[in-house]
Design a protein that fits this description.
The complex is a heterodimer. By secondary structure, chain A is mostly beta strands. In chain A, about 0% of the residues lie in helices and about 50% in strands. Classes of the chains: A mainly beta, B mainly beta.
Chain lengths: ~120, ~110
């Protein structure tokens, strides 16, 4: 099956620094990847849609200058949380849809637990 | 933002009891998918429903898609402790994007 790898799984950073999270599709090409944020015991909130070779599409209320998304290749998308603050602490998770499958289901990375201190 | 609502938000059941979660979209969906997320894990795909009124079964799980393609339900018969987790529906509209429902967290008491 399709595999999506996300790195790092956990990161602790100081307030004001930037953190980069990588999302790779290991055995398929993903022209589109999705970035979600999940608070404890809550649903996944779509932050942005990452499109290979073009600008990401951000959801309403998501600051594009704070959450930088780069989709430089068909297998890699990155999310950079810039000038992180404690309120950015959350679980970030990426996914890619298997568009070649009839169900086109989403495969998720393992997620990144970000803690800003 | 969120366009897909789920109820209930939390559900505690005794092992062996049935469980149902309901998913409602404000817009007509092209299809709907269901995912399960175990505590500490990432969502895993369960099933997709495409046709109006479609019903699919996976062992003790029964999935339904409403006639208007705006709502769906997941029913688990005779819950087991392995059913613990959060169940999400994901509404797929035209195009590539889809939005997750608010989720229902299921706790099964042995």
């Amino acid at each position: 099956g399709a595999v999506v790898s996300q790195h790092p799984s956990r990161v602790i950073c100081k307030s004001g620094t930037s953190v980069k999270i990588e999302c790779r599709s290991l055995d398929f090409q993903a022209t589109t990847m999705f970035w979600y944020r999940q608070f404890p015991k809550q649903s996944l909130m779509l932050m942005a849609t990452s499109n290979e070779g073009s600008k990401a599409t951000y959801e309403q209320g998501v600051e594009k200058d704070k959450f930088l998304i780069n989709h430089a290749s068909l297998t890699l998308s990155t999310l950079t949380v810039t000038s992180a603050h404690p309120e950015d602490s959350s679980f970030y998770i990426c996914s890619a849809r298997a568009l070649w499958r009839e169900s086109a289901e989403a495969f998720f990375g393992q997620g990144t637990r970000l803690t800003v201190v | 933002g969120q366009q897909v609502m789920q109820i209930p938000q939390y559900q505690h059941v005794q092992e062996g009891e049935d469980f149902t979660t309901y998913c409602n979209s404000s817009t007509t969906l092209s299809n709907i998918q269901w995912y399960k997320q175990r505590p500490g894990g990432h969502p895993v795909f369960l099933i997709q429903l495409v046709k109006s009124g479609e019903v699919k079964k996976q062992k003790r799980l029964t999935f339904q898609f409403g006639e208007a393609k705006k709502n769906s339900s997941l029913h688990i018969t005779a819950t087991q402790t392995t059913d613990v987790g959060t169940y999400f529906c994901a509404g797929v509209q035209t195009g590539n994007q889809f939005y997750f429902g608010t989720g229902t967290s299921l706790t099964v008491i042995p």
